[in-house]
Design goal:
- This protein is α/β, with parallel strands linked by helices.
- The protein folds into two domains: 156 residues, Urease, subunit C, domain 1 (Roll); 270 residues, Metal-dependent hydrolases (TIM Barrel).
- Helices cover 31% and strands 24% of the residues.
- The protein contains 15 helices and 18 strands.
- The strands form three sheets. The protein has a ten-stranded mixed beta sheet with strand order 3-2-1-4-13-14-15-17-16-18.
- The protein is globular and about 65 Å long.
- The chain starts with a strand and ends with a strand.
């Protein structure tokens, strides 16, 4: 983006507070100013969105962008841990080749940090024996990238380092492993390598309710994993003392309530985590186990918290878990998650509604997202806002639940890839071309 652009919204809300009559000044993809302004004093070139509220782009901190299975009925069976679910999913072949899984996972999670490999080199493509053949992998990345964008998510931490460049922002300065039962040696190696780099190391832990998953805690301790560069995912069976130990070590936890409820019928002990001050982020996990959108996950998080713990999870707290909290964890890579000077101009807009802007988002239908911008450039826009936003003329027109949207023409290849994925693999369509 060259020069300066101005965007005016009826209201703006981020983790730091709410601004009425908000003016954003953007240059070079970065917010230069975010102030309250009267309409009569706006610069003449301002894009005016009267009746709309702006939020910072959401951050989905645990997502499997190459996973296409939609609402896998096997998830409902209720395995004791995620390893059993994986092995049952692949049937007899999974049991036979279980000993090769650590090798495949090493190729998936470690090799890309040593060699410049592309998405087609992901060795776990060899395991894709259900409806997701490896040749569709790049198209799946396109599909799941747009699936996130359509709900206001502009940044994702994908579980795989093979992810190609996508329309949304990918956090790349990190390591991610699947779990200690298959990757304990790789985890120890990463901890040794990471002593100087101190990149975030994400690993599934406590993803189950049986004794096997409970033993993960001792594996973590014995490996020297109680350190501030380690971030845990799920933590379903972690006890209050263990959560407190994580907080003492400077660790963080990503919880995926829909996935945990569907697979194990239990959530991470969020009240205990909050009580001890353990930092928390909220994410969807894979599409076959979690929510279809992060907005849906936010709504379900509040519902499941109420059901399991008999209390209320404050909407603003949920909002922080998908904006400022994950942004602070990755502040060394990019300034995200807030609508403040110096932050990347990633934001989305919805119609103003309700007195509490934070309570408006959880459970919101993704078609209510009227526009999504990354680095100040529109990627998705409701058709009637085309003039206000200065949308490029080369846009792809689509329909979503009787609402008409424009997809930025510069992303035509990723749009086509998403369409190929849902047609080949019979996934839910994201839109209808007009």
């Amino acid at each position: 983006m060259s020069g300066r652009e101005y965007f005016f919204f009826e209201q703006m809300a981020d983790a730091d507070g709410v601004v009425d009559g908000a003016l954003l000044e953007i240059s070079g993809g970065v917010i230069q100013k975010a102030v309250s302004a009267a309409r009569r004093y706006l610069p003449s070139s301002t894009h005016v969105f009267e009746g709309f509220r702006a939020y910072p782009g959401l951050i989905n901190l645990h997502e499997h962008l190459a996973c296409p299975v939609f609402r896998d009925p096997q998830v409902e069976a209720g395995d004791g841990n995620s390893r059993e679910w994986v092995l049952r999913r692949y049937g007899k072949a999974g049991r036979i080749f279980e000993r090769l899984i650590p090798l495949l996972l090493a190729g998936k999670y470690l090799l890309p940090h040593l060699l410049p490999l592309g998405v087609g080199s992901d060795p776990t493509n060899l395991l894709r024996l259900d409806p997701w053949p490896g040749f569709q992998t790049r198209n799946l990345y396109c599909y799941n990238s747009w699936r996130n964008l359509l709900s206001g998510v502009t940044t994702v931490l994908d579980h795989s380092p093979y992810a190609p460049q996508m329309p949304l922002r990918l956090l790349r300065n990190k390591y991610a492993l699947h779990g200690l039962r298959w990757q304990i040696a790789q985890f120890k190696l990463l901890l040794a390598v990471n002593k100087k780099r101190r990149l975030p190391v994400y690993i599934h832990l406590g993803d189950g309710i049986d004794s096997e998953s409970a033993a993960d805690w001792q594996r973590l301790v014995d490996a020297g994993g109680l350190r501030d560069d380690v971030r845990l995912v799920h933590g379903v069976n972690l006890t209050p003392p263990q959560l407190a130990a994580c907080r003492e070590a400077g660790m963080r936890l990503v919880w995926c309530p829909v996935c945990s409820e569907r697979m194990f019928g239990r959530l991470a002990d969020i009240p205990a985590a909050e009580a001890c001050g353990l930092p928390l982020a909220l994410a969807t996990d894979a599409m076959d186990t979690g929510s279809f959108s992060l907005l849906e996950e936010m709504g379900r998080a509040a519902e499941l918290y109420r059901r399991h713990y008999g209390g209320e999870l404050v909407p603003r707290r949920i909002f922080e878990m998908v904006t400022s909290v994950p942004a602070d964890w990755h502040a060394d890579e990019a300034r995200l998650g807030r609508l403040r000077p110096g932050c990347r101009a990633d934001f989305f807009a919805v119609r103003s509604g309700g007195a509490d802007p934070y309570a408006h988002l959880p459970g919101l239908n993704a078609t209510e997202v009227a526009g999504v911008w990354r680095d100040g450039l529109p990627l998705i826009l409701r058709e009637e806002l085309r003039t206000e936003a200065g949308m490029p003329p080369a846009a792809i027109r689509v329909r979503r639940e009787e609402k008409f949207f424009l997809l930025c023409g510069a992303e035509a290849a990723s749009v086509s890839g998403a369409e190929r994925a849902w047609k080949k693999l019979k996934l839910p369509p994201l839109w209808e071309r007009i």
